[in-house]
Amino acid sequence: MEKIIEESKQGESLVLENKPENTKKLFIESYGCAMNFSDSEIVASILSSNGYNTTQILEEADLVLVNTCSIRDKAEQTIRKRLEKYNAVKRTNPKMKVGVLGCMAERLKEKFLDEEKIVDLVVGPDAYKDLPNLLAEVSAGRDAINVILSKDETYGDISPVRLNSNGVSAFVSITRGCDNMCTFCVVPFTRGRERSREPQSIKKEIQDLWDKGFKEITLLGQNVDSYLWYGGGLKKDFDNASEIQKATAVDFDQLLKMAAVGFPKMRIRFSTSNPQDMHESVLHVIAKHSNICNHIHLPVQSGSNRILKEMNRLHTREEYMTLIDKIRTIIPDCSVTQDLISGFPTETEEDHQDTLSLMEHVKYSFGYMYAYSERPGTLAERKMEDDVPETTKSRRLQEIVDLQRSHSALRTQEFVGQIVEVLVEKASKKSEKDWSGRNSQSIVVVFPKEDYKIGEFVNVKITSCTSGTLIGEAVSLSEMN
Questions:
Q1: Could you say which residues bind [4Fe-4S] cluster 1 here (predicted)?
Q2: What are phi and psi of 89, to 5 degrees?
Q3: Sign of the dihedral through C-alpha 72, 78, 82, 83
Q4: What is the dihedral angle through the alpha carbons of 302, 221, 206, 53, rounded to the nearest 10 degrees?
Q5: Are residues 406 and 459 in the same domain?
Q6: Distance between CA 281 and CA 480 in Å, rounded?
Q7: Are 220 and 260 in contact (CB under 8 A)?
């Protein structure tokens, strides 16, 4: 994976405030998307109620869990190397138990127990409530597995702990699964069908975060724009819902408005969107409420209509560009970011040029770029030959990355001379004398610490920039007027 601007949080070990009455130690490590990190918070909450405190020291853990990603082969290989590391530690601590969570667990199921002798339990994304029972099975000397996918939102009643938190920003999951069936993607197979979480439980979680001093949330899902709550069940069954259920249903723009109005001082983000599901009504909600950030992550994957059809993407190049134009009209200062794949099966040079020309039209603020990686079980793996040479994939990917870097530089340059509101999140990686935070457009801003603190909103005048970072100085209200 190649990502411009932001650093990935791959392989982060997570820690929460421990309970003095707990006697066992949990080491949990997460890879992949934000949903995995959110799920790890749910796992830690469940196990915290079952006697486990978390630790950042692998060697002292009674239980080691790795929350896995299957979106790319490289991610799976990284996880296999981590399992080798666990195996080496387990030889010196035979009481240690090791479990695999997440998408890779769902994809490989029983094979994990056979192939990876280090693994004691395998738990899919919808089965984390069963962890205490599975651990009892392991303690009795039996292998344990639960990878059954649910038709309902599984964790709406669980209050997640905030792992390794800065106390400022947090994820709030609103949907699970995906119905889109893109031919390259394993998510529908590893996370199941789309289902949405009850709105009041979402509101309750946001309230809890606000009460604890958090200043920013990200509404999270594989496809947030398809959020639809009508009383439970899968989204695909909505047509069979009662008239009352349909009349009282809540969709994404209503949920977003509910969060913005209910918590006017809380900064709100959301991710991820799919072009065919993003309706104009959502854009008007964003434009109306100043606490909703002006940033939309809008994966396109390719600029070629032929390749989009092969990918089973449910939008065309023209529809995507029309949506971009609407965003620019309704939310003029909105940043748009992307996912792109180079070298999808049968991709020609003309297809690749279509992608570059679409990028020129949009000029994304930043993006996530990949060379195509064949994933077992997907339609592309079963029906399409991976026929683009690796050298060609790499060359095309580099051209995409280079163009994105130039567009990122152009987008950050637009902020020079402006005053932006920044939520202070942490110290700058490059200097302990500076704070780092993000503006509404999700671009990193660095400025001198002075007397400001983490969690404060600060007005910063941008004086210079790189292709990925805005650099400036805090200004007072009097200086702004």
A1: 33, 69, 103
A2: -70, -40
A3: positive
A4: -120
A5: no
A6: 33
A7: no
Chain centroid offset of residue 260 CA: 21
Domain count for the chain:
3
What does pTM read for this prediction? Answer: 0.86
What value does the mean pLDDT take over residues 126-142?
A: 89
- In this structure, the number of other CB atoms found within 10 A of the CB of residue 56 comes to 13
- Clarify whether residues 203 and 314 are in a common domain: yes
Is 334 known to sit in a ligand binding site? Answer: no
Q: What is the CATH number of the domain that holds 274?
A: 3.80.30.20
CATH number assigned to the domain comprising residue 469: 2.40.50.140
Task: Give ∠ CA 408-340-304 in degrees, rounded to 5.
Answer: 115
Q: 84 in helix, strand or coil?
A: helix
Range scoring the smallest mean pLDDT among 287-296, 333-342, 376-385, 463-472: 376-385
Final residue of a structural domain among 85, 112, 146: 146
The whole-number average pLDDT for the span 453-479 is 93
403 and 464 both lie in a single domain: no
Average pLDDT value for residue range 106-112: 79
Q: What is the predicted pLDDT for the residue at 190?
A: 84
| In 72-191, beta strands by DSSP E | 97-101, 121-123, 144-146, 169-173, 175-176
Shared domain for 262 and 193, answered yes or no, is yes
pLDDT band at 376 (very low <50, low <70, confident <90, very high): confident
Domain hosting residue 72, numbered range:
2-146
Last residue of a domain, which of 364, 380, 410?
410
- Any domain includes 157: no
What pLDDT sits at residue 481?
57
Instruction: Calculate the average pLDDT of the chain.
Output: 89
For residues 467 and 381, state if they share a domain.
no
Please state whether the peptide bond connecting residue 272 to the residue before it is cis, i.e. omega within 30 degrees of 0.
yes
209 and 350 part of one domain: yes
Q: Say which range, 22-36, 255-269, 311-325, has the weakest mean pLDDT.
A: 22-36
Statement to judge: residues 206 and 306 lie in one domain: yes
